[in-house]
Specification:
This protein is of the alpha+beta class and about 475 residues long. Helix content is about 40%, strand content about 15%. Bound molecules: manganese (II) ion.
Length: about 475
């Protein structure tokens, strides 16, 4: 948690961006897994956390712009609760910690919102993503459940995005704490990538490192020898010599700021010549993309530059042909690179995605393409100092997609399908780092995690020599 004044200042700035009305923040509730008292680990709403700092369930808050009041809603711990939880601070004490003097009960919150609605005042809400909030808002705002999302306040959303998109030095430090954990997780995975170990064993070790540092996984782990399946989760598969193990994994810092890193390790410690050629192409593309990150450059341009770099390299390998610019303009490269180059990162690993992916990543100046591949780009807009984003090119050989495109005769001028057939057992490679846009350019955040092919081989070779499965 940051100093009290950080939250006071954040709310003060928000207030200048919204003219009038009631600004409503719903913190998250505890959610049952399989029965009411067996709960999922609590995850606070990121915008609530950003402005109100408190990381416990059952809280809400309002800023009343017309009456110049800030109120935190919740309840004081009862003795019955304290029996199970131990002593907890009072609601008033929690409010004071974030610079708020006025508190109220949850019932009082309902009255505050309903009387504002009755008086015809604006009630500003963010788009809800949990059913319980949707139901609550439908009742308070007196609209149908499927109309609640339409009530979300444009002014509120835009103001939150403008603030959260620019990370302060303190926030960057939290992201780097999350990256310290990611470093430990990925180097442990590289050292574990030995024949006889299951994907799940690697994954369990990675998750243990995240939790042992007081955070947790920032999203469900991707640990797979089938890297071409973009969001594949670990299975009981036993690693075999010669396979490529793709790990896309990040941790949160205890403050909930995220990290998101992808590395690929050759099981047994050596890339084959074919694997290394693709690996080096992805790595060169990633380095060129990181070098291109600086204020004033649209991230979409860097995505397209990466697409051209990958196309150029695939041509050298005989997998693509024709004019590089034309191939990328046509979207032919998306057979091998069907996703976007990166996304914003902060309190959410896909930062603020709940506020609308296009609003966060495109804004008014950019429009999302409907072309396969480019349509999956989450971030297109012009970069500004303080943005934190991922840079994560990849190359994949997806048999079902190759078969379909070939059968449809797609992009035959640019794709050498006969050569591609031989790669259908290849899998996929992605390399991802987290980057801060600085005034001059960019800085790769966190401790350096091996990614040069020789360095990765050296780590994996330790596994082959040292450890037992
Ligand atoms: Mn990512």
């Amino acid at each position: 948690m940051f100093d009290t004044d950080v939250y006071v200042q954040r709310r003060r700035r928000l207030r200048t961006a919204i003219n009038a009305g009631l600004v409503l923040f719903l913190g998250n509730e505890a959610v049952p897994m399989n029965y009411a008292s067996n709960l999922y680990p609590f995850w606070q709403d990121s915008s609530f956390l950003y402005y109100w700092g408190l990381d416990t369930p059952g809280l809400a808050a309002v800023i009343d712009l017309d009456e110049d009041r800030e109120i935190l809603f919740g309840h004081d711990p009862t003795v019955d609760e304290i029996v199970w939880t131990g002593p907890l601070p009072s609601l008033h004490a929690r409010a004071a910690r974030v610079g708020v003097t006025e508190t109220g009960s949850r019932e009082a919150l309902g009255e505050v919102v309903r009387s504002a609605v009755d008086a015809g005042r604006s009630v500003h809400i963010l788009p809800p993503y949990r059913t319980r909030h949707t139901l609550q808002l439908a009742e308070w705002l007196d609209v149908a459940q499927d109309e609640v999302a339409m009530q979300a306040s444009e002014a509120f959303i835009e103001a939150v995005i403008a603030q959260r998109a620019i990370k302060s030095e303190d926030e960057v430090a939290e992201i780097e704490t999350a990256l310290d954990a990611a470093h430990a997780m990925h180097t442990a995975a590289m050292r574990r990538a030995t024949p006889g170990v299951t994907e799940q064993a690697v994954a369990g070790q990675m998750e243990g490192i995240a939790t042992s540092r007081g955070g947790r996984l920032s999203f469900p782990l991707i640990v797979s020898v089938r890297g071409e399946v973009l969001h594949n989760h670990p299975t009981e598969h036993v690693l075999q010599e010669g396979e490529l193990m793709l790990c896309d994994a990040g941790a949160t810092a205890p403050s909930q700021y995220a990290s998101d890193i992808t590395r690929v390790t050759p099981v047994g410690g050596r890339f084959t010549e074919r694997q290394r050629a693709i690996y080096d192409l992805v790595l060169t593309t990633q380095q060129n993309a990181i070098d291109a990150v600086r204020p004033g450059v649209p991230f979409r341009d860097i995505h397209l530059q990466a697409a051209r770099d990958l196309t150029d390299g695939l041509q050298a390998l005989g997998l693509m042909r024709g004019d590089v610019d034309e191939a990328v303009a046509a979207g032919a490269h998306a057979l091998f690179f069907p996703h976007g180059l990166g996304h914003m990162m902060g309190l959410d690993v896909h930062d603020m995605e709940g506020l609308g992916e296009d609003r966060v990543g495109y804004g008014d100046a950019f429009e999302r393409s409907d072309q396969f591949g480019l349509s999956a780009l989450r971030l297109a807009r012009t970069l500004e100092p303080g943005f934190v984003l991922t840079v994560e090119p990849g190359l994949y050989f997806i048999p079902a997609l190759i078969d379909q495109w070939r059968a449809d005769g797609k992009h035959t001028a640019f794709i050498n399908y006969d050569r591609v057939e031989a790669y259908k057992d290849f899998g996929g490679i992605r390399i991802e780092d987290d980057v801060l846009v600085t005034r001059e350019g960019a800085r790769v955040l966190g401790p350096s995690i091996p990614k040069d092919a020789d360095a990765v081989e050296a780590m994996a070779a330790e596994a082959a020599e040292g450890s037992t499965p």
